[in-house]
Amino acid sequence: MHSVGIRDEIKDRVIARRGKVHLFDRFDPARTAVIVIDMQATFCAEGAPAEVPLSRGLVGPINRLNGLVRQAGGHVIWINHANDNTGGRSDWDGFYNRFVADDVRAQTIASMAPGSPGQEIWEGLEVAEKDLRLIKNRYSALIPGSSALERVLRSLGVDTLLITGTKTNVCCESTARDAMMMDFKVVMVEDATATLSDDEHRAALETMIQQFGDVMTVDEIAERLPS
């Protein structure tokens, strides 16, 4: 896991603006969902084309948070990233052709293909029978056409999202930003998200707590769930 958190000066700025650090004092489990983003082999496996080494350290915190939320009566939704590659073209050529070097493009596309080994939930993560599983094809799971997440959340009556997974500053942050602007309550889980460096992780968390939602640890969330 990352060894950094939100700096005191940022917390002071948040307090000056809204009077307190944390937005939420308690969570209604029936209206709360853990969103587990991209905890799949493509991002977690050693040597994988989009490897995030620190993501492997999230297994314990994510399992703990999921267990707490399930036990309280909340929801867990697993979201994997996949891109179709029909006829030699990806359904996200704008990404693969511009942001991925030639020598790793084919490997990355193959790993992101629906049903490929890269789609497997990372080892050690505990998926319950009642959990939901969705596929997204863009960084954010909430932009139009990316996934069915919004429709699922609305149908469940969920209004609070606990964002976990990887990368903190890419798919997690993109989904969290869109969620806030769609009027969901958003919490980025500090010790259940990971990216490629401490600096990027901290920057994402500090942006989140100032403008888009809350940032809490698993312990802080546990204190706000009914026992």
What does it look like?
By secondary structure, this protein is α/β, with parallel strands linked by helices. It has one domain (8-223): Rossmann fold (3-Layer(aba) Sandwich). Helices cover 39% and strands 19% of the residues. It has helices at 8-18, 41-44, 59-72, 93-99, 102-111, 149-156, 168-181, 198-212, 218-223, and strands at residues 32-37, 75-81, 85-86, 89-90, 132-136, 160-166, 185-194, 214-216. The strands form two sheets. It has a six-stranded parallel sheet with strand order 5-2-1-6-7-8, with helices on both faces. A two-stranded antiparallel ribbon has the order 3-4. Helix 7 (168-181) runs parallel beside helix 8 (198-212). The longest helix has 15 residues, at 198-212. The radius of gyration is 17 Å and the shape is globular. The protein starts with 7 loop residues before the first helix and ends with a helix. The mean pLDDT is 96.
Summarize the structure.
It is built from nine helices and eight strands. It has 227 residues and is of the alpha/beta class.
Feature tags:
single chain; 227 residues; alpha/beta; Rossmann fold; 6-stranded parallel β-sheet; two-stranded antiparallel ribbon; 8 strands; 39% helix; 19% strand
